[in-house]
Amino acid sequence: MEQAQVYASAWSLVGGPFDKGAQLDLANEEKELLQEQLEEFEADLKDASREPGMLEIAQGLIKWHQGQMATFEKVLNTPADTEVRLGSDDDPIILQGEKLKGFRIGLAIAKSWIEKFPLSIERNAPDSDEEE
What is the pTM of this model? Predict the structure, then answer.
């Protein structure tokens, strides 16, 4: 889900030097889009729960989300003055000082908003009137 990354990135820019005054509105729009996509996926999953491969897709998304949360934790648990590099090696964005502080605040907010993944996997008990 690229939208989760887009949302986290939008929040990391709120109030920072790259905020042109509308970043908070943009971040909220990205949040709404992410929520809509997750709700649509959950509805599709319920509708197609007996289709082959859906369980594997759901498991993959849950594993991906756990990996993203681990990355958030790793970055947030580094010392506060640790330089962060974003982008390509050819043209990196280097975050230090106040820029880094804003990034970490945005990352903490984004983490708290997507921390609970709205998808779970449950095995349905067989109907009691089904023949085995």
Answer: 0.48
d(CA 106, CA 75): 12
- Dist CA 94 CA 8 (whole Å): 17
pLDDT tens digits, the chain, 132 residues: what are they?
Answer: 577 778 788 888 888 888 888 888 988 898 888 888 888 877 776 666 566 677 788 788 888 888 888 988 888 888 878 887 777 778 878 888 888 888 888 889 988 888 887 766 555 555 544 444
Burial of 27 (0-12, 13-18, 19+ CB in 10 A): buried
Please give the backbone phi and psi of residue 14, each rounded to the nearest 5 degrees, phi first.
-60, 125
